[in-house]
Amino acid sequence: MSKTSILDDHANLDEYFKPASKEEILSYTPKAKKTEPVVEKVEEEFFTKFIGDKNYGYYNDKNVWVW
Fold this sequence. Notes:
Blueprint: H1 13-16, H2 22-28, E1 58-59, E2 65-66
Antiparallel strand pairs: 1-2
């Protein structure tokens, strides 16, 4: 019969499962890479270009949009 466990029968489980030290964590932590900042293009809202332009329509006295 073969073993499927990585631990043998006489392993010290407290030693095996001890928390990592700060140095171990820092050695496995990848260093941050320098990247260029993401510049988002500010796009105009589609409907805001119509506000105040009589060529596209207006609100009448009943507060209804008229094209």
